[in-house]
Design brief:
Rossmann fold, GMP Synthetase, Chain A, domain 3, 4-stranded antiparallel β-sheet, 21 strands, 31% helix, globular, binds zinc ion
């Protein structure tokens, strides 16, 4: 059995393996993480109740709020001395989210990312260029390590201009580009505008992550640039950017079921939904040592097929994410919450919770964030130059915190009030600006 053959297990083998992995994960979480023990106790379930993988539905859910509430060590299931890396993620709460990794966790994550690259046709002879916003830096690091593990030459994400990235792409003859669909389109829009010859590109594959890859965007890459495209899906909190990825058949994303057990549930009731029905993707990690996740609610709405793929892999396939069922906004692969924005604004105003509305614009295929901020006399004291300085500095601070650039526009509260109903904090203008 080679190391990749795990993707070809029979349904019976998957059930048996998942049952064993789930039992050991639940055992470990119950005995070593007080949070999980208490949650299981609340719903009247314990490790002895997990007789098969089907009993997973009896376990309580874990949410992003839980991860933040248990910062910094609350969800670790190994002693700190066994942890060799900690990733801290922004959250919409007072606390960030901390995820620890043991040596074993790091190795497995790198092997998984290398397997995803290999399935995407990437090898030791490739030159892999990763172009991601700073808000996706953790994905960028995983991708870098996975591609290096294959022996490929890697150009990791750097804070350079789009034109410089294109220049690097042509000068170093990049063969594989990893980026988001919107930034990928933006990149090649600039390429065309500068009248750079198609022959200057040596690209053979574009791997698109962080956002849903639409058939239209796929066609543009494949027909106009004559490259192969692959989509992948992942979340920071679990297995990184290669939790699910396309095979050459490109008919859904194969979920790395040797690392996670996926479920689809009704976002409102939490009930498990039948195969093929769209609902919220819920993930249980089965190989994570430092930070096991039990029934983690991703907030992403998709559906799953359990049919064997034409490629022969038996791992279930998820369809592209249709939407979100929580109050998180995803912009260029970066998640933004209302709570995070409120906190950033309050930090800048000395505690004032100024009303705001996020407006998403489209510019050359790239989503731009505009924050309409209802300022008061604590910010605008009558001096316009002073107000402009405050805005520019706030934009810099917000960009650093969110991981993507944004613009702030001061407005009257009356102009945004109608859009702020039912906890809404963002409006999407992109569909009206598609031709821009
Ligand atoms: Zn396949």
């Amino acid at each position: 059995m080679n190391k990749d053959s795990v993707e070809y297990l029979s349904p019976e083998q998957w059930t048996q393996w998942h049952t064993e992995l789930l039992q050991s994960t639940v055992n470990r979480a119950f005995s070593r993480v007080p949070f999980y023990k208490e949650r299981m106790r609340q719903v009247g379930v314990g490790p002895d109740d997990i007789g098969s993988v089907d009993d997973i539905a009896r376990l309580p859910f874990t949410t992003r709020d839980d991860l933040s509430d248990n910062y910094p060590y609350g969800l670790f299931s190994v002693p700190l001395r066994d942890i060799v890396r900690i990733h801290a993620l922004r959250s919409g709460h007072a606390n960030p989210v901390a995820r620890g990794l043991t040596v074993q966790d790091l190795r497995k994550r790198t092997q998984l990312t290398a397997r995803f690259f290999k399935t995407s046709g990437v090898g030791a002879d490739d030159i892999v260029q990763i172009c991601l916003d700073p808000g996706m830096a953790l994905h960028g690091q995983d991708l870098k390590e996975g591609a290096e593990n294959l022996g490929a030459l890697v150009i990791p994400p750097d804070p350079v201009s789009t034109f410089t990235r294109l220049r690097i792409m042509t000068d170093f003859k990049t063969t594989v580009l990893v980026t988001t669909p919107s930034y990928g389109r933006h990149l090649f829009e600039i390429f065309r505008e500068r009248n750079m010859p198609l022959a200057a590109l040596n690209l053979k594959t574009v791997i698109l992550i962080g956002e849903t890859l639409t058939p239209e965007t796929r066609m543009i890459f494949e027909k106009e640039l004559d490259v192969e495209t692959r989509a992948a899906y992942g979340i920071f909190e679990a297995s990184g950017p290669s939790m699910a990825y396309e095979c050459p058949c490109k008919c859904g994303l194969h979920i790395a079921m040797d690392h996670v057990i996926p479920e689809i549930v009704d976002p409102r009731s939490g009930e498990t939904l039948p195969e093929g029905q769209p609902g919220e993707l819920v993930i249980t990690t089965v190989t994570a040592r430092a930070n096991p996740l039990i029934r983690f609610r991703t907030g992403d709405v998709t559906s799953i097929s359990r049919q064997v793929c034409e490629c022969g892999r038996t791992t279930w396939r998820m369809n592209p994410v249709e939407s979100r069922c929580d109050n998180l906004l995803t912009v260029r692969g970066v998640k933004i919450s209302a709570g995070q924005m409120k906190k950033l604004i309050a930090d800048r105003t000395g505690g004032s919770e100024l009303p705001f509305l996020i407006v998403l614009h489209k510019w050359k295929h790239l989503t731009q964030i505009e924050i309409l901020l209802s300022i008061d006399e604590t910010i605008f004291t009558g001096s316009l130059p002073q107000l402009h300085r405050w805005i520019r500095r706030s934009e810099e601070i917000f960009q650093e915190a969110i991981g993507i650039s944004c613009r702030i526009r001061p407005v009257e509260f009356d102009s945004i009030e109608p859009c702020l109903q039912d906890g809404k904090f963002a409006v999407d203008q992109r569909v009206f600006e598609a031709g821009c």
